[in-house]
Amino acid sequence: MNTEEIPLRDRILETTRHMLFSDGYSSISMRKIANAVGVSATSIYLYFENKDHLVHTLIEESVEDLSVAIEKGAARYDDTIARFEAIIHSYVDFALQNPEKYQVIYMVQSERMARYPKEKFRKARRGYTLLGSVLEQGVKEGHMEVDEPLIAAYSIWAQLHGVISVVLNQRLDSRIDREKFIEESIEHIIQGFFARIKIS
After folding, report:
1. Is 53 within the bounds of a domain?
2. What is the arithmetic mean of pLDDT over 54-77?
């Protein structure tokens, strides 16, 4: 599809995502975005009130894409443990396959950026809330010991984010193979959790 055939709103969002990924929030403006898209700044204001509205929209759409990917991954399995592993792998796969979307969700930070609306932030909880419900189900089935499923889920989320951040920000020790690092890190997170499985 030619660029001209892509709806202007989508072109604005895609261009802004690229610019955020490469230049950062503070370095972009509505005028710079307009120039990059090849339209007037007025054209952008037909779709977005300001830069924060534009970035909030990017976050919301990226969160939705991540949540859908995780839910689809979990839906392939009925077994609780298999669903747990599928959620983790779906998270990592999404981040590696869509680095710009992932960066927008988790790494766009600025004191000058308007606070992300609470109702939209609730939507961003879908992924680890699902993970929490899977952990809770594991407790009910007698397979797992977790005092606070939601806290455990968020802890896993934070560990995964740490792994992904090292890779995407190119902070990985050059002596370490990238793929092996990702694979073993995921395995350590999973096994660290399974260490709390009840042994009958």
Report:
1. no
2. 93
Model pLDDT, residue 195: 45
Structural domain of 16: 1-48
Question: Residue 127: which CATH number?
Answer: 1.10.357.10
Q: Give dist(CA 65, CA 43) in Å, integer.
A: 26
Q: Give yes or no: residues 69 and 38 share one domain.
A: no
Q: Are residue 16 and residue 67 in the same domain, yes or no?
A: no
Give the pTM: 0.86
Structure tokens at 29: 């403006």
Any idea which residue has 């990592």 for tokens? 92
- Concatenated DSSP letters of 140-197: HTTSB--S-HHHHHHHHHHHHHHHHHHHHTT-S-TTS-HHHHHHHHHHHHHHHHHTTB
